[in-house]
Amino acid sequence: MGCQKFLEFLEKTMKAIIVESELCGKIKLTFVLLFCYLLSKKTLTKEEDRHEAMASLLQSFVDPKKNWFARQHMKSLSKRLRKYGLRYDDLYDPYYDLDIKEALNRLPKEIVDARHARLKRAIDLSMKHEYLPENLQAMQTPFRGYLQEMLALVKKEKAEREALGGLPLYQRTIP
Question: What range does the record give for the signal peptide (predicted)?
Answer without folding.
Answer: none
